[in-house]
Amino acid sequence: MTNTLLILPGDGIGPEVMAEVHRIIDWYGTKRDLKFEVTEDLVGGAAYDAHGKPLSDATMAKAQEVDAVLLGAVGGPKYDTLDFSLKPERGLLRLRKEMDLFANLRPAQCFDALADFSSLKRDVVSGLDIMIVRELTSGIYFGEPRGIIEEGGQRVGLNTQRYTEAEIDRVARSAFELARKRGNKVCSMEKANVMESGILWREVVQKVHDESYPDVELSHMYADAGGMQLCRWPKQFDVILTDNLFGDLLSDVAAMLTGSLGMLPSASLGAPMENGRPKAMYEPVHGSAPDIAGQGKANPIACILSFAMALRYSFDEGAEATRLEKAVEKVLGDGVRTADLMGAEGGTPVSTAQMGDAILAALDASL
Ligand code: IPM
Ligand code: MG
Q: Do 111 and 39 fall within a single domain?
């Protein structure tokens, strides 16, 4: 089976971190005989500059055909004044929606070498390894009606939180399946105390559990308390299952626990395609960081670890994914640091490309 990849570097630091991923992909081709057929295209502001839209129909069609999409980052101040429908973020949301990538996996892992970068005490975060499963294609992000309407002589901003049973059911299954391969625990978070969608969420998750995954430990928590518990004692969690908006918030909280946003990958998975592989897109959790774009300062690790997730979830190469993750861990353990990882002890940061060099050297050493 060929392995096809569509790379969308996007805006800001996207292209420079993606350049390092290209080198990793080449390494797998030459050193592990693991070949990828790669095409590259535009998304976000870069696509707007070229086509007047944040994602062209041709790019959307390509994304539907490949085994995996790898996305860098979108957005930048240059596009802030654009009409809502043309903003770079709309390109990303269109990919998620049209590929129906309903399960967004956001691991928050604390690398031991970086535990002191967390705003929390070392013993609270060291060894932390949680996985947030965020519903990604429904809820208030996409619910209708929406808009800014006129009512009683004033404007009203309107969005709708909406979940069908089927939408809750399928993402719950993703969370339980993942939990079985990890710590075997799922904590589901909603606001069943104030929202009907939360009541239904809780009922459906419980039903999926009782019928199909009784062996997995399931608990429920209100999402606000979940945020608090994440900051108090995050190691109580294994898999956190939550909706689109709460997942957006909680995954940023979880990300910060680990000390650096520049380190965290994500996978967005949909239903299996004809070849058995899931529809998939992989992207770093960080944004386009326009303030440092083009300076060779950005940390490529989140993007590289996103490719590791692609190896694991799209290409069934779990051992090679682990090899890449271990290479990153080794480099961090050796004290190699990009500018975002410079602590109080100081030192000289390496460039984006030097971080890539170090990871490639660690990969070579792993053979
Ligand atoms: C994320 C981001 C996106 C979201 C934005 C860029 C649309 O914050 O992936 O978490 O809100 O989902
Ligand atoms: Mg977010």
A: yes
The DSSP string of 18-67 is HHHHHHHHHHHHHHS----EEEE---THHHHHHHSSSS-HHHHHHHHHSS
Ligand 2 is an ion; residues with CB less than 5 A from it: 248
215 and 304 share a domain? no
For 66-114, what is each residue's pLDDT tens digit? Answer: 999 999 999 999 999 999 999 999 999 999 999 999 999 999 999 888 8
Report the predicted TM-score, pTM, of the whole model to 2 decimal places.
Answer: 0.94
Contacts of 295 (CB under 8 A, 6+ apart): none
Protein residue with its CA nearest to atom 10 in ligand 1: 248
324 in Cβ contact with 308 (< 8 Å): yes
Q: How many helices (H) and strands (E) does the chain have?
A: 12, 12
Q: Same structural domain for residues 264 and 117? A: yes
Query: Is 248 within any annotated ligand binding site?
Result: yes
